Amino acid sequence: MKALITGISGFAGSHLAEYLLSRGDVEVIGTFRSPGRLESLGTLLQNAQLVNCELTDAESVNRLIRQTQPDLIFHLAAQSFVPTSLHSPADTLVNNLVGQLNMLEAVRHLEVDCKIQIACSSEEYGMVYPNETPIKESNPFRPLNPYAVSKIAQDFLGYQYHQSYGLNIVRTRAFHHTGPRREECYVTSNFAKQIALIEEGLQSPNVYVGNLSAIRDFTDVRDIVRAYWLSLESGVPGEVYNISSGTSITIEEMLQTLLSKANVHVDIHVDQKRLRPSDVDIVLGDSSLFRSVTGWAPEISFEQSMEDLLNYWRGVIQQQKLAGGDRG
Ligand SMILES: C[C@H]1O[C@H](OP(=O)(O)OP(=O)(O)OC[C@H]2O[C@@H](n3cnc4c(=O)[nH]c(N)nc43)[C@H](O)[C@@H]2O)[C@@H](O)[C@@H](O)C1=O
Fold this sequence. Notes:
The protein is an alpha/beta fold. The protein is globular. Helices cover 45% and strands 16% of the residues. β5, α6 (146-165) and β6 (168-174) form a beta-alpha-beta unit.
């Protein structure tokens, strides 16, 4: 069986590739855009076929689908950082929507018989009133940033291509995910990196933060990518599924969890530049539909996830120190 992952060098993409390669029964092909990100993964993807492909270019995507003829497509490639979408809304909308459109059009015109998973997001729900939690798939969308709007468009485009052309599409709405290799712009990774730098004496003992009162539903990325696989194994085409832990904590509690694993004392400072013009206050998901259809449940605890993330940054910083020493 051949699986194509768009955005294989990204956070979820690289973990999904690792999972599929470890199964031994899947040939993995992946698209990437940034060679730098790929290099940082070392030999992790050495058994995958890697294709440098700009998804907003229809001709390139057509060639990719024609040449690879995948049985499964995991469509993960996206601009997924909320503040970037606020600064560059057009870029986010074009990348996320046109990239997917090109992929669906290629599958439709080439008549490739494949199952497609579309990575949508809990950000689509946006503003949620406390009495509307836990969030079900039927909750209203009240998006608070262009990234959320782009994900609603991707979600509905997937629905429409299933309804209009019978494409075998399953949509997943993942809630916040984290774990080793999370890009440092996201909150868990950003705080973990700052703590690891402080431990090494490379940052003064001050952790800079934004809005600590936001509430998020965290799942480890390794559980999320297993869910993506299950979504194509047992998900119903045309359906949409929330993927979430079903528990939530404040960002402040998340920071305290990381600090409880650190061997330093720090002061916490709010950095005004980290505050957003509008932030989603509360995210708590109901993934009972997905669990009942696939049997999925998270296996990695939040504590473990934070431990692994902190150790990941400790490792990166050690490597950088060694590399710096080599040069000296
Ligand atoms: C499901 C969804 O999940 C993610 O979206 P996000 O929730 O915006 O992720 P984040 O890690 O940037 O922020 C989480 C919360 O943490 C607050 N916060 C406080 N202090 C800092 C801070 O210093 N940095 C950041 N980044 N956030 C901070 C921030 O204001 C927000 O309330 C993406 O994967 C997205 O692609 C996606 O689909």
